[in-house]
């Protein structure tokens, strides 16, 4: 899965780098791999990245600030679907790099993020750690907690009843800008679209939340064939909302 963990610069935590290399069974190196097909984790003063060939994937919440500032947050379609209330708890079962969770946390949710892929979880954890040190991001990031593992197992072990469960099985969007295309290309090298949607939906329902919100393509089928209570649709996306 990973060819190497590459350290660049003197400010990198070498003990952490060793632990990561051991976890992935990868070689710890100080030189950038020259193989153009190499897949490796890069650790430098800016954080942790995953590199696959010419493409690089990195978690970063700084680019999300514009979406939650200057009155823009209230126009987020996800929030029109979730209809948040103060103090509610949300679980994002398919966290990825945490962008949707960041929107939920910015709206006031206490968000628990579940991510099963170890590389994606590594990038997300690093992004969260950096965000919690950033004055502009720390208040939102403080409401986000990451758990690595299978969402179905983590849902079954939840010690509380969530108000919202959010599901975003990856799907091929028709309209993507160049940056999104590149990000998805790299993400798809380490994560496949959800293959156990029926089990995931059942696990979400067993957790007995007030509401389950599912991200879908506008013309796509309902997840696990379950018809929503209502849907919120825009050009590129549809949110199916199941009120329990």
Structure description:
- There is one protein chain.
- Helix content is 31%, strand content 23%.
- The strands form two sheets. A seven-stranded mixed β-sheet has the order 8-7-6-9-10-12-11, sandwiched between helices. The protein has a five-stranded mixed β-sheet with strand order 2-1-3-4-5.
- The protein is α/β, with parallel strands linked by helices.
- It is globular.
- It starts with a strand and ends with a strand.
Shape: globular
The counted number of beta strands is: 12
Low-confidence sequence ranges:
none
Largest sheet: 7 strands, mixed
Count of runs of 4 or more consecutive helical residues: 9
| Secondary structure: helix percent | 25-40%
Beta-strand residue percentage: 15-25%
Mean pLDDT: 91
* Biggest β-sheet: strands ordered side by side in the sheet: 8-7-6-9-10-12-11
Structural class assignment? alpha/beta
User: Can you write the helix and strand succession as a string?
Assistant: EHEEEEHHEHEHHEHEHHEEE
The whole-angstrom Rg is 18 Å
Distance between the termini: 40 Å
